[in-house]
Design brief:
CATH architecture: Sandwich
Radius of gyration: 18 Å
Distance between the termini: 61 Å
CATH superfamily: Domain of unknown function DUF5300
Number of strands: 6
Largest sheet: 3 strands, mixed
Shape: globular
Length: about 110
Amino acid sequence: MRLLAGVTLIAALLFSGASWAENREVRLINESSQNIVQFHASNIERGGWEEDILGQDVVRPGKSVVINIDDGSGHCLYDFKTVMANGHVLFKRRVDVCKTSSYRISD
């Protein structure tokens, strides 16, 4: 009985930790006519936005950048906030970054 309980515990730990092993890299692709000047990704449990991932960088029209969305929380669902050079702000809610490999911004 102890062996079965031990095997069950190990299996539960392995499967519950599966989301930790997921790839959380997303290619941000700019298909718009404006520079992307800010990009924020916050897991849905956060009360506000995380810092601008791009920092001083921009993503020019026709260009892309790979962003590691992993905040160490193990979450897969994130809200995205994209700020364009003209001040336009785009929101995308509940993006599964464990399954999404690219995110496109267009006019």
